[in-house]
Each structure stands twice: as structure tokens, then as C-alpha cells.
Amino acid sequence: MEQRIQRFARVFRAIFVAAFVLSPVIVATLWFSGGEVLLGDGGSTTIIGLVRDNVSLDAAHAPAFPLPWSQRWLGLAVSLIPLGPTMLCLWWLARLFGLFTAGEIFTGNTVKYIRRTGWTMLAGVILMPIHEALLTLVLTIHNPPGERLITISLESGDARDLLVAGIIILVSWIMDEGRKLRETDELTV
Question: Is pTM beyond 0.85 here?
Fold first, then answer.
């Protein structure tokens, strides 16, 4: 059983490490290429959807493509707001699955990385309205006065993400209590 866990953990660790390395490259490529490199002709108009699914821009306020370089740099900077927590979660998960690969399953270190993943996810959800507000401002910054926007929205996905983060934190707490009980039993003769 432990070998199977280690085998699966090795695969997931590789996925998390690859995602950690590739996610900033993909985001930077999207902003600097305007979407054409990854999406082909006409791809630049979908960059809004790829960077943030729910940026609320109607056709009247949508930016003109291709985006000026200043706007691309600002967009990349704003994209670091959700990218940071995402990369940190991927890092914690890579570390966690590295411990699973080494055969550590119910230890203080595994609980620590599970808890950190939950808190980082929670921070990411809290930062999303700031990201959305700044992204809509960046995308409409070259619009004429009166047509620049700052929008914030709350969606069911945000509530779901908050719930998942809370569950992960709760699971880490329960695992930690179980670990403490097991260690107490092991010390009792």
C-alpha cells in the first residue's frame, strides 16, 4: 500500500513542480504575445478570459487589440496578484507530495504543508477582488475619460473556493490532532 502511495505521490509531485515552473511562463507569454503565441490568430481577444474568467467588461469598454506594451506590462504585474498564491500552493503541494514520496504520511511536516496550502488558498480568494478591480482598470486605462472602469464581482466560484480552503484547513487541524494522539499512544507504555 505504501509503495502505491509513493508511486502516485511521485507523479503528483512532478505535476505540481511542472505547474509551478510553467505557470509564470504561460502568464508572461500570454501578456507579452497578446495571446497570439498560444492561441493563434485572433487569440488576443481571449486574453481577458484566460487571465481572469469573470472580468466584467462589455463590448463598449473592451480594450483595443493588440494591447500597447505599457498595458501588457501592467497586466502582467496585476496578474502576479493571483499567480503568487497559486504558485505558493503549488510549492506547498510539491513539498507535501515529496514527503509522501519519502514515506512520511501522518507527520507534523505533512500537516504543516496541508495547513499552509489551505491558508494560501484562502489568501488567494481574498485577493481576487483586488485583482479584478486592478485588471479592469488596466484593460480600460487607455479608454477615453468616462469609459474607464474598476469592477468587482463576487461569484459562486469564490464561495466554493472559500469553502474548499476552509475544509483543507479543517482537515489539517483534524490530522494534527490525530497525529498528536498517535504520538501520545506511542509514548505510553
Answer: no
Q: Quote the CA–CA distance of 90 and 72 in Å, as a whole number.
A: 25
Q: Which three cell numbers stand for residue 9?
A: 505521490
- What is the torsion angle, in degrees rounded to the nearest 10, for the CA atoms of residue 55, residue 49, residue 86 and residue 6? 140
Q: What is the mean pLDDT of each run of 10 residues along the chain (189 residues)?
A: 88 97 91 62 51 56 74 90 96 96 91 97 93 87 82 82 96 93 81
Helix 2-33 to helix 69-101 angle (10° resolution) is 170
Rounded Cα distance, 95 and 155, in Å: 31
Whole-angstrom distance, CA of residue 165 vs CA of residue 123: 9
Task: Please state, in angstroms and rounded to a whole number, the distance separating the CA atoms of residues 24 and 20.
Answer: 8
In whole angstroms, give the CA distance from residue 98 to residue 95. Answer: 5
Left if phi > 0, otherwise alpha if psi is -120 to 50, otherwise beta: which for 35?
A: left
Number of Cβ within a 10 Å radius of residue 134: 17
Amino acid residing at 174: I
DSSP structural state of residue 142: T
Q: Is 170 left (phi over 0), alpha (psi -120 to 50) or beta?
A: alpha
d(CA 51, CA 149): 17
